[in-house]
Design goal:
Layout: H1 2-18, H2 44-47, H3 62-76, E1 98-99, E2 104-105, H4 108-120, H5 142-150, H6 157-220
Antiparallel strand pairs: 1-2
């Protein structure tokens, strides 16, 4: 059985290999070092000049710096917003620091200009706090209120007894205060009567003294 299986495997391998075309052979490796180099068409240095344009050197002083700035200005072609004959990159509308004997100082007009700009800006108005509308009280329907009134109210017995005790105590205190007030009024009335009596007695005594004075002492004189 193993021999027949081996023969079948060899036959199937031959059939599969017969359907695949053979691969082409690789060409032989050549020596590329013998190929001559092509001559260059143009010179890079001749047709691609340096981006930096040569500028003449001037002496390192104020006179030389002036000529150097003018030369740079002419080479660049001038900047927009510059005046002819002015300093390179200098804007006349902006006050630059001035050089003095002790150092650089800022011109006085700069502070005034900034002050005017700050003062001329509109002051933002303060935002008013948002007031939320108060929700209106909900009206209780009439049927619901009647139902609530007719419903029984349940109270604990101990709470009821405590409430009754407080009510009785309050009633007794009110009665005692009323009695005290009644007694005070009675005493006050008695005192007023007593005062009226003593006032009448004093009036009577004074009248008698005046009578005696008229009848006796007036005659002696």
């Amino acid at each position: 059985m193993g021999i027949f299986n081996k023969k079948r495997a060899e036959e199937t391998g031959k059939v599969q290999n017969a359907g695949v075309p053979p691969l082409p052979e690789l060409p032989p490796i050549q020596d590329y070092s013998q190929i001559p180099e092509l001559p260059t068409i143009y010179d890079e240095k001749e047709y691609m000049p340096s981006q930096k344009s040569p500028l003449p050197k001037y002496p390192d002083n104020s006179f030389g710096n002036k000529f150097s700035q003018n030369a740079i200005k002419d080479a660049v072609g001038g900047l927009p917003g510059e005046k002819e004959g002015g300093d390179f990159g200098r804007n006349e509308s902006f006050p630059y620091p001035e050089e003095t004997g002790t150092g650089w100082t800022m011109p006085k007009s700069l502070g005034k200009q900034f002050t005017r700009e700050i003062d001329s800006r509109p002051i933002p108005k303060t935002m008013k706090p948002m007031v939320m509308p108060i929700a209106q009280e909900m009206e209780i329907p009439e049927a619901f209120s009647k139902m609530k009134k007719n419903e029984p109210v349940f109270i604990r017995l101990d709470k009821f007894e405590e409430s009754m005790h407080l009510l009785n105590k309050a009633k007794s205190e009110i009665n005692s205060i009323e009695r005290t007030l009644k007694d005070i009024r009675k005493v006050k009335e008695e005192e007023e009567k007593e005062l009226e009596y003593w006032e009448s007695q004093i009036t009577t005594i004074k009248s008698q003294i005046e009578k005696v004075d008229r009848e006796i002492f007036s005659r002696i004189e």
